[in-house]
Structures are given as C-alpha cells and as structure tokens.
Amino acid sequence: MADTSRRDFLATSAIASAGLLTGDVLAKPATGNHTMPKLLHHVFFWLKNPESIADREQLIAGVRSLAAIDTVRSIHVGVPASTEKREVVDNSYHVSELLGFDDVAGQDAYQVHPLHKKFVEEHQHLWSKVVVYDALEVK
Amino acid sequence: MADTSRRDFLATSAIASAGLLTGDVLAKPATGNHTMPKLLHHVFFWLKNPESIADREQLIAGVRSLAAIDTVRSIHVGVPASTEKREVVDNSYHVSELLGFDDVAGQDAYQVHPLHKKFVEEHQHLWSKVVVYDALEVK
After folding, report:
1. Which of A58, A60, B29, B37 could staple B73 via S-S, CB 3.0–4.6 A?
2. Whole-model pTM?
3. Which residues in chain A (15-54) have CB-CB distances under 8 A to chain B?
4. By C-alpha distance, which of B110, B106, B2, B96 is closest to B46?
5. ipTM of the predicted assembly exceeds 0.85
C-alpha cells in the first residue's frame, strides 16, 4: 500500500468512525475494512435480451472497463442477489454497477471521459432501461 | 487494524484486482483503497415530510445505528448528489443507505436482527416509500 493511499485510507476510517458517534446509539464501526467513497454512483441496467448470456457478459465486461477511469475509486459489478423476496425489493434489473468517487467533480469528470463515452456507444444497444442514483455521504 | 481484518482486506483486494483482468481492457485496479463487500444492500427512502429537517435527521440517525449489527461490513448514508441532471438519474429520494455484507447469509441475519427490527418499528412512520436493491458481486 502506497504511503499516500494508506494515509487516505486511515483518514477515511477516522471520519467514518466519528460519523457513527452521531447515531442514536453509540454504534461500533462496521466490522471489516471496506471504507466507502464519499460519492456513490449506482447504475441499474435492464437488458433488451435478458436470456442472452452473451449480452450479459458483454455488458459486464464493458462495465469493468470503467475502473480504468482515473477518478473512479472503487467498483462493484453485481447481479440481483437471491435474498428474501419482499415487495420493496426490486430484483427485476439484470446488471448493476456501483462506482465510488471522492466528490461530485470526480463523477462529472467520469461522465465526459473518453472511456465512459466509448462504453456507452458500444453497449447501449444491449439495454432497454437504465436507472441511476447518485448519493453523497451525509456528514 | 486487527490481523484477521487486515488479512481479509488484503484478500479482498487481491480478488478485486484479479477480477479487473477479465474486462475487455486490461484495467488498472480502481485507485484508492475502497474495497467493496461482495453483497450490497442499497435502500432508498422517500420521506412523508421532505421539508422536515427533523424527520430527515431522525431517519439518518436511525440508519447509522444499523452499523452496530455484526454482519454489516460497511455503511454509507447519503442524500442525492448535485450531479448533472439527466433523464436516467433518479434524484427524487431523500435518504439512501448502502450496507455491505460478506454474503446473502449476512444480509438474511441482518433482516431479522433486533436492532434492524427496532429501526423499522421506530422509523417507518417517517417514510412514504422504500426501494431496495440487493446486488451480489459477479465473479
């Protein structure tokens, strides 16, 4: 781990721990070392041809390529989990992409980055619907 | 950092790096040290009274208390980010909660945990709508 990265990691951990003290219980920090970036960009894709494994794999490979964009701090590529079926759970999507950024500027830079534009151009024929949620960490 | 936690962190980093090699470009790992848990549980809340700062703060404090549940590996509490307004972006929600788990079993245990039940009982009067997405990392 590079020195600067380690400092960032420790600083983020400290902020996260401090934040937990403001809850209505004195919460322990969540276990594990998965610190979260401040800005989350969560995208859900519905495929035009959900039965096509090839289409799904092509989209997943495309999403993975987005990790190379320099302002992207974390990536999680997912599919609906087989958790309990409940009315509030939307498991109708086919592929999800969670990207983490340091701030809004990082996400703005990502939107216009050539690799992101290339991803959209080459993969948009695969999906019928996209829903995006951008969430900024509450201090 | 406890030895076991550090081992988990390093193991997860190694898995994440390996996964990135399967993309259509040889992507560098995302910069920073925000490794992602395997199972993401992302919840979006719409408040009954969006103008009430007190209601919002009460919900946020309640969400933070969920970090004390032992299977929760990470937490991000957010509000809509002021990113570019686009048709596909849903910024109509008021509070978001992203919890990370090791696996589906961890999320199942969380659902029936007394602290989670207490949170729902004490805060459900605040929201008018909830949408949940559970996403399992693609290998």
Report:
1. B37
2. 0.78
3. 16, 19-20, 22-25, 27-37, 39-42, 44
4. B96
5. no
